[in-house]
Specification:
This protein is of the alpha+beta class. It contains 16 helices and 8 strands.
Length: about 375
């Protein structure tokens, strides 16, 4: 495969077709780092308002390092995988202590920070600092597997290593290309307005072009091969194997789980509790709940277990279905009606009004319950 042709074709395509995304208008490594962490397992259209709000509230490493946990979780609410945001803050504090508050440019220094793996370190080094470091996310895996006809499971060590090798060879080829302003017009325009800073680099633009091609053209189910700038060199296109690559491997069967949540109110306040450290969705807020077997119909006993009272009746608020890793979860929500509500004292949690609840970060499913409260 002619790496030079691939690099030049994608750089030219990216210059004409790159989306104007706010984190592409800057070379600030902090802004780029935040965007990369948010974009993990999340679509661009979802991330845009989160990133813009985050940068308004926490514009630099110092602000992130000092932020209170509740504020961090609220800014992240809805993005999921909340360990990511806690790692961001921990890393920011380490950078303040060990790197004089400057995000390190060395790949190994970045890799040593909490929450930064090989992909994120490579993204920061290449996009922010224009270093010839490879990246390999879902979009890039798909592009390279199809382009080079790699049939193995990308999660297997041998296949994964081959993909990383190709990604590195390509970005090293990009490093030989002279940087030109037209490579990244959005960044160039932003720099012109500020009249300062270096222009874009070929390594930065090339790695972004791989991700962009996977997002816009080389999509999982309906790839637009007719307008792909490198279709003529694509092995999968030539051999009619586009939808066969990359090989997905065996899918893990989803496991159903059932939870029941109880909404108790007294004097205009609702009972909520915070999830402990070390569990899924740690430190987020939720209504009292418990897991039941699929055939357990004794909801009154469940209320006694959770709230320590016998309810007069239960009013169904609705059902929320969602997924966490391999689990397919059904959450049933009930409003608890009881004259004894004021005596719920043995239950751990806090009684908070609607305004205060709105300031807390809830798990995705329980946030949907919160929206249904009058």
């Amino acid at each position: 495969m002619n790496h030079r042709y691939i690099v030049q074709s994608l750089l030219a395509w990216f210059a004409r077709n790159a989306r104007d995304l706010p984190w592409r208008r800057t070379r600030d490594p902090y802004a780029i780092w935040v965007s990369e962490v948010m974009l993990q397992q999340t679509q661009v259209k979802t991330v845009l308002p989160y990133w813009e709000r985050w940068m308004r509230v926490l514009p630099d490493l110092g602000a992130l390092a000092k932020a209170k946990p509740d504020r961090l979780h609220k800014l992240w609410e809805g993005l999921g995988y909340y360990t990511r945001v806690r790692n961001l803050q921990q890393a920011a504090r380490i950078i303040g202590e060990e790197h004089s508050g400057q995000i390190p440019e060395e790949f190994d220094d970045l890799l040593a920070l909490p929450g930064i793996g090989r992909y994120t370190a490579g993204a920061i080094c290449s996009i922010a600092f224009n270093q010839p470091k490879p990246i390999l996310d879902g979009n890039v895996i798909r592009v390279l597997a199809r382009l080079y006809g790699i049939a193995g499971d990308p999660r297997e060590p041998k296949t994964n290593a081959r993909l990383w090798q190709i990604a590195e060879e390509l970005v090293r080829q990009a490093a030989k290309v002279e940087a030109k302003p037209e490579m990244s017009p959005h960044l160039t325009q932003a720099r012109r307005r500020k009249s300062s800073g270096a222009g874009p680099g070929a390594c930065s633009c090339f790695n972004q072009s791989l991700m962009e091609l996977g997002a816009l053209i080389c999509t999982p189910r309906e790839p637009r091969c007719g307008i792909c700038p490198i279709a003529k060199r694509c092995v999968a296109y030539r051999e009619n194997r586009i939808l066969d690559l990359p090989h997905a491997g065996r899918r893990i069967r989803a496991t159903p789980r059932r939870f029941v949540a109880f909404v108790a109110e007294r004097y205009g306040r609702w009972l909520v509790r915070q999830r402990p450290a070390g569990v899924v969705n740690a430190h987020l807020w939720e209504f009292p709940n418990l897991e039941l077997s699929p055939d357990d119909s004794d909801l009154e006993r469940a209320v006694r277990r959770v709230l320590k009272i016998r309810p007069e009746r239960l009013e169904r608020l609705g059902i929320v279905k969602h997924s966490i890793t391999r689990y397919r979860i059904t959450l049933e929500a009930y409003r608890v009606v009881s004259d004894h509500g004021v005596r719920i004292s043995a239950v751990k949690g806090q009684w908070l009004d609607r305004k205060r609840l709105g300031l807390l970060a809830f798990t995705s499913a329980h946030r949907q319950i919160l929206r249904r409260l009058v």
